[in-house]
Design a protein that fits this description.
The chain is of the alpha/beta class. Helix 10 links the parallel strand 5 and strand 6. The chain is elongated and about 75 Å long. The mean pLDDT is 95.
């Protein structure tokens, strides 16, 4: 610090990071330690720092954060999945449904450079979904979360369509329509006709039986659950649901994809 006597720098830092530090004990404690130790002899400052460190280390937040740290890494270790497990190429994604979940999932891919074809049945729904995506990208660029150039490229990587046949161009198709079994089964019957034989067919269902959804296709081994949490472009957790006949290659590919779009995948 250029001027140890200027205590306002600490208050300014805490104010600037208030949202980031909200609910956390350690960041504020660290700043307050710096504020105090600048005016103390070294030995006294080191003693104070050690006491505060031990207090925080034994606190519930430290224990919870350590648990989360190791749990995330443990969740990625799935029995039967290794480096030698075959993977499927996923370079293009199609999403069925441009509602809240569909547009959010599309953003999760677009923000990480993956082209998306957004399929809707009506122009009004398509326009609403595209509008939501464009507004979010513009807001992200304005706030500095992404550059103007990256936001522009993301928008250019989005292809809205009313033509269901466009799913044939995708390596992965994610269904994000109403939580009704009949509706989802109807979608997967159509996917079975139009999607490539090697494409991964995923459902975003939060509770419906994926085995029943997979059963209406001729390729249940290609079906998996990819349950995003709302808002899908922000929430890190991705529930990867393995159905009875989901192949290891599809499961391994889904786990790799989740990490590529900066999600934390947990297999259910």
């Amino acid at each position: 610090l250029a001027d140890a006597g200027d205590a306002s720098i600490f208050d300014q830092f805490l104010a600037a990071n208030a949202k980031k530090f909200r609910g956390l004990d350690a960041p504020t404690a660290i700043v307050e330690l710096m504020r105090k130790t600048l005016t103390l002899p070294f030995r006294e400052g080191a003693k104070l720092e050690r006491a505060e460190f031990l207090r925080l280390r034994e606190g519930p937040q430290s224990k919870a954060l350590r648990h989360a740290f190791f749990a995330e890494r443990e969740a990625s270790k799935v029995p039967g999945i290794g480096k030698d497990t075959p993977r499927l190429k996923i370079e293009k994604v199609a999403i069925i449904g441009a509602g809240t979940m569909g547009s959010g999932i599309a953003l999760a891919f677009l923000q990480t450079g993956v082209p998306v074809t957004l399929v809707e049945v009506a122009q009004e729904g398509s326009d609403r979904g595209v509008g939501t995506i464009e507004k979010t990208l513009a807001k992200n660029a304005q706030s500095g979360r992404m550059t103007e150039e990256k936001a522009r490229k993301a928008r250019e990587s989005l292809t809205p369509t009313l033509d269901f046949g466009k799913v044939a161009e995708a390596d992965l198709v994610i269904e994000a329509v109403f939580e009704l079994m009949e509706v989802k089964q109807d979608i997967f019957r159509k996917l079975d006709q139009h999607a490539r034989a090697d494409a991964i067919l995923a459902t975003n269902t939060s509770y419906l039986d994926i085995n029943q959804i997979a059963a209406v296709t001729s390729r249940p081994e290609q079906v998996i659950g990819l349950h995003f949490f709302s808002p899908a472009n922000i929430m890190k957790l991705l529930e990867v649901v393995r159905a009875e006949k989901t192949s290891l290659a599809v499961l391994a590919s889904a786990l790799d994809l989740a990490k590529a779009i900066r999600k934390v995948p947990v297999v259910a």
